[in-house]
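Input chain follows. Return structure tokens only.
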Amino acid sequence: MKIVQKTSNLLILRLRPVSLWIFGAVFASAGLFITFTGKTTILTCNRTESTFGSCKLIESGVLSSQAEVIPLNILQGAKVKELDGGDSSTYQVIILTRNSEVPFASYSSSDEGQAIVSHINQFLKTPEETSLTQQKDDRLQMLLIGGSVFTCGLVTLMARLVTCVFDKTLNTLIVKRQGFLGTEIIEYRLSEIKDVLVEETDSEGRTYRISIMLVSGDRLPLTSYYSSGKENKQKIASCIKSFLNINN
């Protein structure tokens, strides 16, 4: 929050949450991107004779689609490869051919991947089986993850522009909050103000907000959220108290 104007009878403060808008835009964009990365992976194998035939691996999604044909006579099996993800790991099924390793799909547990590997390897060991189909569809999972990230970004993006006008001539405090959903205007008499506080919360890692204490005992937070920057908020609170001649 910054001081826009200060005279002996007028104090105007304004909070323009640009950093929150940028943060919200980045998160909303990331959420949309994650949503669109969901894809369906299908492995279809058809055997005409014991060693002849082919497998077709198809990956399809909103952002891309590709297909690869693997001759059955060069297919040697499948394995599970652990992918290091820091605190948690994911497991990727790898299709083994005579010349390369072809990624199939990733799973959150080793058991899921091992089940797919078992089906593929069993098919290769059983000449009597003429077909095999394995599928992984993570579109719903990506939709849920991306939707959560997008919602978080959208909520942050809706942080409002706040303008506070302390007017001794009119004996009023006007708080105007402007956002995508409209404008809210709150008005109090300066004589109703008892104190100005800097509130603190530990729930978000020691963040702060400025709050007006009223004679009635109610509090009027200038913002609905807490944020970092204790020193600046204390400076603004002291400025308001000095303007209103509040001494504690």
